[in-house]
């Protein structure tokens, strides 16, 4: 018989806050993408140039704006970070959460490469999404590797 997993409240809250922050930034970037009268609150000259990054050839995947994919990513992540998902004994949910974040981290690595070598510019908003994705991955890796197994014994 499996018992409910006890995950520290701080892990759950941190994950939810990071997911909501990522969703907020991705939503902002999506709104800016579709509303051309808005301008990103970011420099648009030199190495830091959000406009150059968000309108580059790397800003779409299969015709879908990366910002929209970011919204989808963080909505799914938010569901996977709900307290019920954390406390589930289902290995499917645990693998889905880890796999989803691994895909996000690989995507971030590609996008950082694209910014540095493809576009030769950095978007501060995009960087915040990259950092949030990395922190979510570290949070899950740490929790699954150290917190969860110790509680299972």
Outline the fold blueprint:
Layout: H1 9-34, H2 50-54, E1 60-61, E2 64-65, H3 66-80, H4 83-87, H5 91-119, H6 124-152
Antiparallel strand pairs: 1-2
Question: What would you note in describing this structure?
Answer:
- It is a single chain.
- This protein has one domain (9-147): VKOR domain (de novo design (two linked rop proteins), Up-down Bundle).
- It is built from six helices and two strands; from the N terminus they run H-H-E-E-H-H-H-H.
- It has helices at 9-34, 50-54, 66-80, 83-87, 91-119, 124-152; strands spanning 60-61, 64-65.
- The chain has a two-stranded antiparallel sheet with strand order 1-2.
- The model has no long low-confidence stretch (mean pLDDT 89).
Keywords:
153 residues, mainly alpha, de novo design (two linked rop proteins), two-stranded antiparallel sheet, 6 helices, 2 strands, 71% helix, 3% strand
Short description:
The chain has 153 residues and is mainly alpha-helical. It is built from 6 helices and 2 strands.
Q: What fraction of the residues are assigned to beta strands by DSSP?
A: under 5%
CATH superfamily, by name, is: VKOR domain
Tell me how many strands there are. Answer: 2
CATH fold-level assignment: de novo design (two linked rop proteins)
CATH architecture: Up-down Bundle
Give the CA-CA distance, first to last residue: 13 Å
How many structural domains does the protein architecture include?
Answer: 1
The major beta sheet can be summarized as: 2 strands, antiparallel
Strand order of the largest sheet: 1-2
Reading the helices and strands in chain order gives: HHEEHHHH
Radius of gyration: 17 Å
**Name of the CATH class:** Mainly Alpha
Judging from the principal axes of the Cα atoms, what is the shape? elongated
Mean of the pLDDT scores?
Answer: 89
Q: Which residues sit in consecutive blocks of at least 5 with pLDDT less than 50?
A: none
Structural class: mainly alpha
Helix content: over 70%
